[in-house]
Automatic annotation (TrEMBL):
Residues 33-48 have a biased composition (Basic and acidic residues). Residues 53-119 form the TRAM domain. The chain crosses the membrane at residues 12-29. This is TRAM domain-containing protein. Residues 32-56 are annotated as: Disordered. Keywords: Membrane, Transmembrane, Transmembrane helix.
Amino acid sequence: MNSLPVDGVAPLAIGGAAVLVLAFVAIWWRRRGSSDRRQSKKAHEAAQQRDPPVEIGETYEFGITDFSEHHSGETNAVGKVEGFVLFVEDIPDGLSEGDIIEAKVLSFNEGRTSADARFVERR
């Protein structure tokens, strides 16, 4: 009779259960991510339908939410005015997320869903 020893059954059962748990977690995580992508797409489409809440040549005060690398290699501050994203160039050293700045809107990006701006001053 060739059967697994009793000591070998428990590790196999635990290993099988662990694989099942990981599979369920992976499926849940993937579905959750697709929901986030759908919400992001809906928000993007809604942004394309509305007029920007900013005007070219005007100056706005807002908080820095993030920093991004421009294709030129320059670091830009990122902030929002009424949910509308502004990418701010010519920022001085020492700024951090949460800092309040003023920036002048220079141009809209394709689709008018964001704009480029130039740093004016720190508040």
